[in-house]
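Bumping my old thread because nobody answered last time. Still need a sequence for this structure:
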């Protein structure tokens, strides 16, 4: 055979030779049955014939398969005979590269379309099964439908981390309305008179010490507080600076207050002085454990008392996977009037706008309602794909209790333990009481987050 000469193109002889090789055998994909190329002969021997093989098990294709121009043998094409082929496949993939292992694993485990069952002649026409709702539309389940292990009252949440599977990142969350001293026994406001409480139960220094003890003992990774009374920091400037109270500077935590402007805080302080007799604004604040998280982006304040904090995990993921835990924590305090559902939805939609593309979401706080699935707030959470953690009752007046404080989380966050109902004694006496320094009890949950990691291949 003459050597190749650059720039001369293909000769007529070469074209005819290629055409002859192409049409030598009418088999699968027109692959020639024999190749007289010298390089081929050196590799496989003189007169070697190519054998067409199955693309799955590599068995030689039969003459019938070749005439039908199949690339998969009849055994691999029939799933019902898979038990005959499986040993061959396992032997085949044993020594191959990882990419081929994955390909054939997916091929073997692909769902096989089933044939429709013949209808019974005498049976009536079967009614179609009700369509299951998509996960994003599932309504939050009631407390009695989902039972979780209860967190021990007054114990550290970190003591029960073994409830979270090792492949998930544990996150402990606590939410508590502190009951600001601004809203206790105000003249002309019977809803905060607390006639069932003795003065010593409502004494603010005593309540503050008990509240601080609850927060410290919880050892929660994230703490969401409502009705935090800010303190005035008089710097001599024209505008007064309002800061979080010094007693909330917990060791090992960083605090993020609601990000209102100085004029807005001052306006609220003047309103409280006029209506409640105490010059101090109140708002929400979120604390997070600095040994576990850092702020991934500046916090955002929404409409009303809504705060959104973006956190990033600083610890390696379980199992050493490549990736990072990032989540958004919403802290809400909705107005107590149930007729103001429009204001509730405004605050929730403002929170939704600030979430951005972050899909790991936790929302908790004082909702001043039981968030029934048929209510506007309950519908909103169901439509957003946020499922409620089945925490127990959190508010009580003598003889009656309600679930006014809630924790919601997105689909890739699962609850493994939560706080339960108030005790019979607490319901009988009403809140605040000797064991609960606020008119709301703390609600907590032990969660596990599934983090998307980079593919190791």
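Sorry it took so long. Here it is:
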């Amino acid at each position: 055979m003459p050597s190749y000469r650059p720039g001369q193109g293909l000769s007529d002889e070469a074209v005819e030779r290629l055409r002859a090789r192409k049409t030598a055998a009418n088999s699968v994909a027109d692959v020639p049955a024999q190749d007289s190329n010298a390089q081929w002969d050196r590799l496989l021997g003189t007169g070697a014939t190519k054998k067409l093989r199955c693309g799955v098990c590599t068995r030689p294709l039969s003459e019938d398969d070749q005439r039908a121009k199949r690339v998969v043998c009849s055994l691999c094409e029939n799933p019902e005979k898979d038990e005959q082929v499986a040993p061959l496949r396992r032997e085949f993939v044993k020594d191959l590269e990882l990419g081929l292992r994955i390909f054939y694993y997916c091929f073997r485990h692909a769902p096989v379309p089933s044939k429709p069952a013949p209808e019974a002649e005498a049976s009536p026409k079967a009614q179609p099964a009700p369509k299951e709702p998509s996960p994003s539309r599932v309504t939050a389940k009631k407390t009695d439908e989902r039972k979780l292990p209860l967190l021990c009252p007054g114990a550290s949440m970190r003591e029960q981390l073994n409830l979270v599977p090792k492949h998930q990142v544990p996150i402990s969350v606590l939410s508590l309305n502190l009951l600001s001293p601004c809203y206790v026994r105000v003249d002309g406001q019977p809803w905060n008179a607390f006639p069932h409480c003795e003065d010593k139960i409502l004494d603010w220094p005593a309540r503050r010490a008990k509240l601080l003890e609850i927060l410290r003992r919880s050892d929660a990774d994230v703490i969401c507080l409502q009705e935090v009374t800010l303190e005035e920091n008089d710097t001599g400037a024209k505008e007064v600076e309002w800061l979080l109270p010094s007693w909330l500077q917990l060791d090992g935590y960083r605090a993020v207050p609601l990000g209102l402007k100085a004029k807005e805080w001052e306006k609220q302080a003047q309103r409280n002085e006029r209506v409640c007799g105490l010059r101090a604004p109140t708002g929400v604040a979120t604390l997070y454990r600095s040994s576990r998280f850092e702020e991934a982006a500046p916090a955002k304040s929404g409409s009303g008392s809504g705060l959104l904090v973006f956190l990033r995990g600083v610890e390696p993921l379980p199992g050493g996977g490549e990736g990072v835990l990032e989540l958004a924590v919403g802290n809400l305090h909705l107005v107590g009037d149930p007729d103001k559902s429009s204001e509730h939805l405004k605050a929730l939609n403002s929170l939704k706008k600030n979430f951005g593309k972050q899909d790991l979401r936790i929302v908790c706080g004082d909702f001043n309602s039981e968030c029934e699935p048929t209510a506007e707030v309950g519908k909103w959470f169901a439509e957003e794909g946020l499922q409620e953690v089945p925490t127990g009752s959190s508010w009580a007046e003598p003889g009656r209790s309600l679930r006014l404080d809630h924790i919601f989380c997105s689909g890739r966050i699962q609850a493994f333990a939560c706080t339960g109902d108030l005790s019979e004694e607490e319901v009988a006496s009403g809140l605040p009481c000797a064991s609960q320094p606020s008119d709301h009890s703390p609600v907590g949950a032990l969660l596990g987050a599934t983090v998307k990691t980079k593919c190791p291949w």
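DSSP finds twelve helices and 16 strands in the chain. Let me know if any region looks off to you.
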